[in-house]
Each structure stands twice: as structure tokens, then as C-alpha cells.
């Protein structure tokens, strides 16, 4: 019998089995933070909406469409915190921490809220552990931050980690680069996907995130920020790289690394875990030298990161998706090929793969959404024309395959 009430979409209950694994993460974070000299901070679950609008930026997805905002009984606009950096910068100013020896090093762990489309590894209430060092522009801080997150993820047993690293330069350099990129995008506007075109004026860097093949082709030839770093920005980045190399931290330079928050300057980084599929980022962050000033404080360089506890648990196998287990293949079928879909799924299952198909009469679009919800690594689309296409759900890449040898195409 199903209960008449369920946890709201994109949220979940933490049951005792998982509570133990979570407590282990919190204990490891507390122990490491203490060793690295970070003190714990806890800010309220909700803040004035204006803090996020000013701090996170109006061109970000977070502020445009993902905030859980409401008015309290006195009519004050409030928002459930979508991220931790702006509230901590606010607390730093409110408590006069700029008068303490700098940088002030803080860490946190708690729930965050974003109105995103739920899927494997992406929720509307999720838990982040994060760290911030406010009040120093020294590249040593960037390196220490990355070392801290690297050590935490390794201590927790997150395997197959990849570190992507880039620099966005100073606000002035970033603005100049933004104009250059925008001019390039305008010149190629007709080749870009409509959604990229629609928001390129506001946030041209996000075009690097697009999975659309036409857009990707254009972006391959786009000017890259790392080629434009100059003077102190270039020196700063070179120092961060040197420090990481000395510390034996492997990284990949990725000039297309774009983070979904507007406040980043200079160093940005992300740790990814391949086995997580579409939502592969476990944690990331960077420098935000302009944020504190933007919130009304003195010029104050700072650096920080956040990592998702649920993604860590998924990566270590200590969390099962409450909605569905991740599967190898979802077979989607056009009208008229549904019987063929069952035959194929059976063949795949007999070969040892986890495979599933639509059992609810959804259209092709709905079937692809279902594949996404199930966390499928690949989808096989049986088209009305008799053909078969394999889609990599993480990258969006598609290729036609021989309908008689789909198993060979998806095995491995
Ligand atoms: P961000 O604050 O966007 O830089 O994200 C930092 C980390 O938080 C990501 O690497 C994820 O591990 C995690 N995260 C962000 N958004 C979500 C979400 N909607 N659901 C689960 N984890 C998330």
C-alpha cells in the first residue's frame, strides 16, 4: 500500500543506514578541517533574498530560476540558502572578521536548496560540506584549499577522481575576455543552439557548457581565457600550478571550466568522479576576490569550495538513489517498435546488463526523461524508420548502430 504523503519532489529522508555513513563524512571533515586550521561556522538556513541576488549574480541559473524564495509574515523577502559562500561572506562582514588576522579560515556542513530538475545525483535539498578562506589573495591559499578537498575525498574513499583546473583572471581581465568572447559568439550566432543564443549576451561563458554539437564546434574555435591571462593574473595562476605540482596533485588544465556562480575570479577547479555519470562533479570552487566588496565590505580576496555529500555517498556506493538504481541501458522505442524494445531489453539483461524500457506508454521524449530519471548510462533509441541510435546520457553524444548488433555496441 502506498502512503498518501511522500517527501516533496527532489527531497528524501535519511534513514539510519545512511545516517551512519553521513556521520563518518562529518567526522572526517571536522578532523581534517582542524588539522588544516579551519573553524566551523553555521549560518541560518534562510537569508534575505537580496544577499543571493547581489552575491550569486542575476545572470546565474541559481538566481534566475532555482531559488526557494518566500515572504515571511512581515512581508520580508527571504530565500532558503542555495549556496554557502555569500552567507559566510555576509557573516564575515557582520561580525567584523576583517579585523582578525587574515585570512579567516572557516568550514561548514549543512543543507542547501535549489529548485532544479531532480535526477540521479541532483536534488532540491542536498547537503554540502565546504570551506572558505577569506582575506588573502596568496596563491598558497588556493593550493591549500585544493589539498584540503583532495585529502578529504581520498580519505572518504572516493575513487577515479579527476581534477580540472583553470583561471578566469581578475574582474577587469575577465570583463575584457567576456567582450572578446561575446563578439565571437555574435559572429557565429546562427550556428549556436537557440538556448545558448538566448543567454549569450548575459553569460557568454556558459556557451562552453553546451552539449549541442553545433555549439561545441563553434566553441572549439572560441578564444580561451587561459590564452588571455596577463600580468599578475598569469603569475598567480602559474604559482598555483607550481604549488600543486610540488604537492604531487595531478590536474588537467581546462580553459572551458565554467562554474555556475558569477562571483569567481582567478582560480577555479572541480573534482569529478567518472562513475557518477551525468552529475559527475563531486566538489569544486575557486577564488572570489570581488564578492566581499560587492556585499558592501572592503576589497577582500577570498577562496573556497563546496562538495556534495550525496555525490560523495553515491561515489563510494554508500547511497542508493531513492527513486531508482542507476542502470546500464534504457531502451526507448518509437511507436511500432515497442515489441522490439522488449526483445532487446531481454537480450541485454540475459547478457548481464541492467536494462529497462518504458512500460507506461510514454512518447519518445517522455521515455528519454525516464532514462534520465533512472540514471541510465546509455539509451538505445529504436526509431520509427527501423534504425537504432545509441546515446551517451552523460555527454549527449549519439551514434547510429546496426539494429541487429546493439548488444555489441552497448557492451563494455
Ligand atoms: P556548487 O555550489 O554549484 O559549486 O556545487 C558544489 C557541489 O555541490 C557540487 O559539486 C555537487 O557535488 C553539489 N551539488 C550542487 N548542486 C546539487 C544538487 N542540486 N544536488 C546534489 N548535489 C549538488
Descriptive account of the structure:
The protein has 412 residues and is of the alpha+beta class. It contains 14 helices and 16 strands. The strands form three sheets. Strands 1-5-6-11-10-9-7-8 form an eight-stranded mixed sheet, with helices on both faces. A five-stranded mixed sheet has the order 13-12-14-15-16, with helices on both faces. A three-stranded antiparallel sheet has the order 2-4-3. A hairpin with a 5-residue loop joins β3 (69-71) and β4 (77-80). α1 packs antiparallel against α5 and α5 runs parallel beside α9. The radius of gyration is 23 Å and the shape is globular. It starts with 15 loop residues before the first helix and ends with a helix. Adenosine monophosphate binds at residues 83, 114, 116, 121-123, 126, 128, 259-260, 281-284, 306-308, 310-311.
Task: Write a brief structural summary.
The protein is of the alpha+beta class and 412 residues long. It is built from 14 helices and 16 strands. The longest helix has 21 residues, at 16-36.
Strand percentage: 15-25%
Could you tell me which ligands this complex binds, including any ions or cofactors?
A: adenosine monophosphate
Please list the strands of the largest sheet in the order they lie side by side: 1-5-6-11-10-9-7-8
Number of strands: 16
First-to-last CA distance: 39 Å
With helices defined by DSSP (H or I, 4 residues minimum), what is the helix count? 14
Class by alpha and beta content:
alpha+beta
Radius of gyration: 23 Å
Q: Which runs of at least 5 residues are low in confidence (pLDDT < 50)?
A: none
Helix-strand topology string: HEEHHEEHEEHEHHHHEEEHEHEHEHEEEH
Measured as a percent range, the helix fraction is 25-40%
Largest sheet: 8 strands, mixed
Mean pLDDT: 92
Overall 3D shape: globular
Amino acid at each position: 500500500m502506498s502512503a498518501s504523503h511522500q517527501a516533496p519532489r527532489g527531497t528524501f529522508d535519511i534513514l539510519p543506514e545512511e545516517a551512519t555513513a553521513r556521520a563518518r563524512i562529518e567526522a572526517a571533515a571536522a578532523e581534517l578541517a582542524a588539522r588544516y586550521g579551519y573553524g566551523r561556522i553555521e549560518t541560518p538556513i534562510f537569508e534575505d533574498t537580496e544577499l543571493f541576488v547581489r552575491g550569486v549574480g542575476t545572470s546565474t541559473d541559481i538566481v534566475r530560476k532555482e531559488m526557494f524564495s518566500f515572504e515571511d509574515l512581515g512581508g520580508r523577502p527571504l530565500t532558503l540558502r542555495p549556496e554557502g559562500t555569500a552567507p559566510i561572506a555576509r557573516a564575515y562582514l557582520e561580525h567584523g572578521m576583517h579585523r582578525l588576522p587574515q585570512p579567516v579560515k572557516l568550514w561548514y556542513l549543512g543543507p542547501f536548496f535549489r529548485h532544479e530538475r531532480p535526477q540521479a545525483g541532483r536534488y532540491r535539498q542536498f547537503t554540502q560540506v565546504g570551506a572558505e578562506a577569506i582575506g588573502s589573495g596568496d596563491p598558497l591559499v588556493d593550493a591549500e584549499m585544493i589539498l584540503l578537498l583532495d585529502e578529504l575525498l581520498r580519505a572518504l574513499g572516493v575513487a577515479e577522481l579527476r581534477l580540472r583546473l583553470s583561471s578566469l583572471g581578475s574582474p577587469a581581465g575577465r570583463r575584457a575576455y567576456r567582450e572578446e568572447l561575446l563578439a565571437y559568439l555574435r559572429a557565429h550566432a546562427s550556428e549556436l543552439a537557440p538556448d545558448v543564443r538566448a543567454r549569450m549576451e548575459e553569460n557568454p561563458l556558459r556557451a562552453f557548457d553546451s552539449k549541442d554539437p553545433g555549439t561545441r564546434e563553434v566553441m572549439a574555435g572560441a578564444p580561451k581565457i587561459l590564452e588571455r591571462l596577463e600580468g599578475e593574473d598569469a603569475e598567480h595562476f602559474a604559482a598555483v600550478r607550481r604549488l600543486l605540482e610540488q604537492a604531487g596533485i595531478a590536474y588537467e588544465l581546462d580553459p572551458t571550466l565554467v562554474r555556475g556562480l558569477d562571483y569567481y575570479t582567478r582560480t577555479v577547479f572541480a573534482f569529478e568522479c567518472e562513475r557518477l555519470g551525468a552529475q559527475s562533479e563531486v566538489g569544486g570552487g575557486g577564488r572570489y576576490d570581488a564578492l566581499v566588496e560587492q556585499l558592501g565590505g572592503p576589497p577582500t580576496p577570498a577562496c573556497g569550495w563546496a562538495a556534495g555529500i550525496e555525490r560523495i555517498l553515491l561515489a563510494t556506493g554508500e547511497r542508493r538513489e531513492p527513486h531508482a538504481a542507476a542502470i546500464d541501458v534504457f531502451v526507448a522505442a518509437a511507436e511500432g517498435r515497442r515489441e522490439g524494445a522488449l526483445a532487446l531489453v531481454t537480450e541485454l539483461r540475459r547478457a548481464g546488463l541492467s536494462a529497462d524500457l518504458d512500460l507506461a506508454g510514454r512518447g519518445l521524449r517522455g521515455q528519454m526523461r525516464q532514462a534520465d530519471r533512472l540514471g541510465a548510462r546509455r539509451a538505445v533509441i529504436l526509431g520509427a524508420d527501423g534504425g537504432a541510435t545509441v546515446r551517451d546520457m552523460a555527454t549527449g553524444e549519439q551514434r547510429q548502430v546496426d539494429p541487429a548488433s546493439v548488444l555489441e555496441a552497448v557492451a563494455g
